[in-house]
Amino acid sequence: MFSAVRSSPKAVLYVPEKLHHKIFPSSLRRITDSAPPFESSQSRRQRRFNFVDTCLPPTCPCRETPDDPRVGQASANSSIVAYHSYAIMCSGKQDWAPKISLDESDPFARYMTNAFSSRGPFHNPMLKHSIINSSFQSTPSEDGATSVYLFPEFRYVNVPLQPESIARFIKGFMLSKKIPSGVTDLSPQVASELRRKPLLTREFAWSNVNSLTILICGHPSRKKLCSVLGPLLEQEFEEKLQTAGFELSQDPPDVEFHKSLEEPFDTTSDWRQKQKFARIGMTSHVGGCNRAGNVIIWIPPSFSGHPLAGTGVWYGNVEPRHVEGIVNQTIIGGDVIKELFRGSASQHGPKPYLPREAASLEGLDVLPPQSII
What we know:
InterPro entries: Aim32/Apd1-like, Thioredoxin-like_sf
Order of helices and strands: HHHEEHEEEHHEEHEEEEEHEE
Oligomer: single chain
Strand order of the largest sheet: 3-2-4-5-6-9
Largest sheet: 6 strands, mixed
Protein name: Altered inheritance of mitochondria protein 32
Structural class: alpha/beta
Number of domains: 1
Number of strands: 14
Pfam families: Suc_Fer-like
Strand content: 15-25%
Low-confidence stretches: 1-46, 350-373
Family: Belongs to the AIM32 family.
Mean pLDDT: 78
Shape: globular
Distance between the termini: 29 Å
């Protein structure tokens, strides 16, 4: 059973919110999501997006957008909560309970969401984690393990369904790698509990994610508009990606146990010369459903030479008529479409970096989703 989220006193550190001011020093609390603590100012200056104002109109017939007055009414260029990581759980389902944290039929989703909640054992006031269910299938396993995609690290991990295994997975893959260099007044115990334990990755079978991964919000029991738009966008992306030369994959990635703590991505050849795979999945609620359809595009680091390699781009207000333009302008061309842009995330940190000429655009106050969701 997964009822005991705070599974082992030695495995986790639980700090009630009312004690944060005593445990976490002011220098730590001042670090904001908009200034990722683990990214140097130099790397922030180096990362820029090439923006285009609008999405190109379709050149061939596409599916019709539902006649709903809510479509496109809210600007996509709004602030988004910045997340340290995204865990995309592979449920194999197309619908979920309205709140996956309360779903009695899905103990893994309940454990993961509650573990990072404000009362959970892995709650950290500095870093947020987005826990989302998806329609992706898990890797078949004799012990009943489930699978998780992790972004923006682009990893896919098999996780046994025991509370202690899930806790060790979180500590090995999801906690932050470093304490910010400017923070020096943490106790050794707190600093240790906040840091990732990379040696634990050897206990799990995992692989790098080398395929284009597209997540589309479509949660019928949560938001009707998303459940209507989501399948239309999924079909449109399947069609347009195949036209662009991508091979769609329904199978999960192959996983294995690794002796090394990091497995390098294959960046030896230009992405255009490689066989290109894409996975498309429907997800539970990602946030901002008044800007449906919400589409998150993860372009892997192995897409060597691609301007957005290793980056996730979150678009809102996406309609079927936009899909061809998104494929050609963003997925193929590497441009970010300003009118649809909600945020971005990358291994560089959770803040989308605007070019100087776009930095002062009114209403474009965006925090990605490593942000992305």
